Structure formats: structure tokens, C-alpha cells
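Structure ticket #2291
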Amino acid sequence: MKMKKIISALVLGATAAGLAMADVSLAAGFKLGSSAVKYNSKDATTNKKDVELFNLNNFWAGNSNVAFKATGDIFSFAATLSPAVAPLKSDIGEDIVLLKIVTIGAKLGDFSFLAGWNRDGIMRYRATKDAGNDEGQVFEAYKPGSMFATDAQCANNQAGFQKDQTDYFAQAGYGFALSDNAKLNVMAAVYSPDAWGVGKNANTSWDNSLGWGVFVQPVVKNVFEAEVFVKGHGDKDDKQNLVIGAYGKPTHIPILADSGIGGSVVLYDGKLTEWNADVRLYFKANDKLSFTSFNNISYLKDNSGTKVYGKIGNLDTPANIANYALWNMVGMRYRKSNSLHLVATAGQQSFFDGDKLTQIFVHPHAQIMASNKVAVTTGIICSVDNLRVSGRDANVVVSVPVHLRVDF
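Resolution: structure written out below.
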């Protein structure tokens, strides 16, 4: 409740004091996707072949938003409304229209401040320049951090701990100029595990105290930039859960300047409980051709029931329990013209102990820009599930997705 009052007061202060002469922008985006055809060689429920036509819920059901931003000399305010095309169930059992992002900020010289909530998270080094219309399971199935649904699943998220959570956060930072070409940014943040009663943090072991985070970002111009961080919170047993990590990229190699390499570890009560590593590469061969590669390995020591949170291709999230998980994705984008991009992605995820499993997919497709505001994406996805599963036959899932994106 105290955090809510703080956020409300800051919003009012920003609106009254800093936004009267602000630059204001309003943008809207509409996205709708459907599988025109989806074939499953062995449905998990019926154990028979299955064919579906135009089901909005079986692939990327929709992700639309209206974004408002106002920026003044000192203060800023941003809000993103994200209504669900398909029904979105909240933890209170009702369909909701989600305020996806609400933040207020201030910048005065080298000092900065930001507070609110951000369901998308604030993460660097994702290397998603070529995401296009095909996001999520056919491109970035996992964020930097752990593949498992733990506090490390979005390890370097400055706005909270877990994916798609609406934790309140507040952060303050200061930039120190070390030389003409070197700078050190330092930020400190606090987190509340429950934002406005919707989308409660999945980690119910939190105590009632605030979580916290410290981020240190060294930058050497035309050489490298990095981020070292530690985030933590207490639990009901008065023990600390810490996420410690580092990510960075070389900026002296132009073709890798939008990449990211790093990882994190989790310490519970001073003991190592999990670790993960990411290598994310974006390589632009020329003005027409570019490549993306995502690679992650994650380890969870005591996995008594925690599953991975991502899904790939046109498959469901696997229900497997394992200690080691591996995910890889490679993508290619060829810009044939301003109105036509030819794209191909392929990937796999595997579990190496416990419930062993491998899933793979390939996804050649085309992105057609009818105008600079309207884009249609279509292609084919072919996935294979249940590889390496003892006593079960692999099943093949083929679908033809069609996506429409309109920006206003």
C-alpha cells in the first residue's frame, strides 16, 4: 500500500510539474495471428491425428497495445494499455484489460529515476533486432537468464524478477564520467512482489519485505559495454535468495555490436542452487542479409517440480522435469526489397536428465509490408516433439500461421 501511494504521488507530481510543456506521443499497434491450418500426427489428448482450421488460440492469439508517452525537460510519463484479443485470465478469475506498462521518470544531469511497473521487463543484451512479426516461440522463446520458471528466468531484468510479472519497482541511477571515453553507470532498485492485486508473483515464498537490486554498467566507447548485477529478496524462513550475473558485448567489432554474452547464478542461503549461460549473436553481413543465434544452457540443482517456461515452434510448453536444459535458435533474414523480407528460423530445446526430451522446429516464412504501417507474415512451421522419449513415438506438428500487424 505504501508503494502504491508513492507511485500515485510521483505520477501526480510529474504530471503537474514536468509535463505541462512536454513532448507527447500516442501510438497504437494491432496484432492478430491464426494458424490457417494445423496438423498434429498424434494429439496429446486423443492420441490420434488431428487437424484444426483457423484457431486464434493455437498460435500467437494476439498482442495489441496503445502506448502513451510524455517527456519534459526533467520528468517523463509512459503508459501502455494491452487489451487481450483472446481472453486473458487474471489470478482473480476475471477477464482483464491490462495496463502493461506504467512508469514515471525523472532525469536531472547525470541522475535518473524511474518507477512504476513494466510487464515486458527492462532487459539489455537480448539481440532481438531481427524479431520482426515472429516473436516468442519461433524466435526468442526465452529471455536472458534461466530457462526454468525461477527468479533467474529474466536474470538482468531491472524491473522485477520473473517473466510477465507486474511487480512494482523504483530505481535511481547516477552516471560517473571516468574519462572522455569511459563511463560508469550505477543503479539501485527496489521491488514489491505484488502489483495492484493482479498477476501476483509466482514465487509465493517471498516474505513481506521489498526485493532489491544493484546494477553496475561500465562503458568504454568503441571497446565494450557490460552490466554486472545482484538482485535479492528474503523468504518466509528469513533466508536470502540472490541472483548474481553479468552480461556484455564488444562494441569494437561492428558486426557483433548488437550481441550479448553472459549468465547468472542463484544463491539461496549462501548455497549455489542454479546457474545459466547465454550467447546471443547478431551478425549483419550486409544491408540485405543478417543472422541471429540464441544459445542457452540452464541448470537447476534441486528440481522437484519446476518446469521450463518457454515453448518453441508450434508446440506446447513441455511438462518435463529435469536439472539440465538446453535451447538453441538460429535465424536468417534477407531483405529482398523494402516490401518483402524472406526469413527462416530453426531451433531446438532438450532436457538431459530426469524426463529426457528433445523438441525441434523449422520455420521458413515471408514478411510482406503492404505499407510502412501494415505488415502480413505467413509461412510454414514444422515441429517434431517427443524425440528421445522412452516408450513414445515422436509426433510431427505442421501449421501455416498468418499474422497481421497494423501500426497507427
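Closing remark: The longest strand covers residues 23-40.
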